[in-house]
Amino acid sequence: MDKEQLLLLENVGPTGQFVDSFDGRLLNPGHGIEACWFLMDIAERNKDQALAQQLAEICLAILNHGWDSQYGGIFYFLDRLGHPPQQLEWDQKLWWVHLETLVALLKAYRLTGMPDCAAWFQKVHDYTWSHFPDPQGGMEWFGYLNRRGEVLLPLKGGKWKGCFHVPRALYLCFRELEQLATDDVARKTYA
Known about the structure:
Layout: H1 22-25, E1 26-27, H2 29-45, H3 49-66, E2 78-79, E3 93-94, H4 95-112, H5 115-131, E4 144-145, E5 151-153, H6 165-190
Antiparallel strand pairs: 1-2, 3-4, 4-5
Helix pairs in contact: 2-3, 2-4, 3-4, 4-5, 4-6
């Protein structure tokens, strides 16, 4: 983790140090945010509120860095120092990145109550639901959008785009929302 910017790097040196190279500067907002919610599960299991808070802050930092302020959506790859990334697909918007972000933000909000998590959830939710579902193709979503949010590839499946992320993320979001509702009822009942 880049402690100054709270960003999760894809590659570091043998002792965790920053390496100023294409690989060393590589950020994948989707991987970082997905890792945050995996670790939030551990924080919750261990009743580690400080870790949950730290992970929520990391998730928000990644979003603040990875959000496309011009067209909306989360970039696929970025360079930590703002240089052009080596990956030619760096500015695409992918289905799984947005779905994993929705899960992470709901989990972060439930565990910390941070209003920024709820605000970011709404922003990512609005972008996701207005861009990825195929309005004429049933339940499956488009996987790859260009920077402007237009469908880049109309395929619904392939080597990397399977039926895993959409149903899992929607189910996990449902569970988080259900838990939030239960927690809210409990707070009102015992307040």
